[in-house]
Task: inverse folding
C-alpha cells in the first residue's frame, strides 16, 4: 500500500523559507517519479514540481521557478521541497504525489 506523509508546513511571513518533507513507503521509491502539488483555499489543485526517480531531472511551475527546489533522498525514501522567498500567493495545502496518489498534505500559510 502506497503511503505518503507530508510534514514541515508552518505559518510564516512573506520572504521566508522552509523545507517540506514527504516520507514514502509501500513502493520502490528510488524508481518512482514524484511530484509536489498544492491547493490554495477555494481553488483547484495546482502542479508545483516534478522529479524523476534518480533525481537527475526536475521541472517547476512558472509561478515557483527560481524560488522552490525539489529534491529527494532515495536512501531515506524521502522527497523534499525547499521553498524560498515565499509570497502570500504560496499559501496552500501542499501534497506530495506518486501518480494519482497523494498524502494528506501539510499546510503552508504565508502572511504578514
Result:
Amino acid at each position: 500500500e502506497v503511503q505518503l506523509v507530508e510534514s514541515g508546513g508552518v505559518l510564516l511571513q512573506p520572504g521566508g523559507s522552509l523545507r517540506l518533507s514527504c516520507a514514502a513507503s509501500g513502493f520502490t521509491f528510488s524508481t518512482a517519479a514524484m511530484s509536489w502539488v498544492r491547493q490554495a483555499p477555494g481553488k483547484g489543485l495546482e502542479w508545483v514540481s516534478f522529479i524523476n526517480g534518480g533525481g537527475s531531472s526536475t521541472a517547476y511551475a512558472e509561478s515557483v521557478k527560481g524560488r522552490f527546489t525539489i529534491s529527494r533522498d532515495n536512501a531515506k525514501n524521502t522527497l523534499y521541497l525547499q521553498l524560498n522567498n515565499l509570497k502570500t500567493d504560496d499559501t496552500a495545502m501542499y501534497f506530495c504525489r506518486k501518480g494519482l496518489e497523494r498524502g494528506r498534505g501539510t499546510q503552508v500559510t504565508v502572511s504578514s
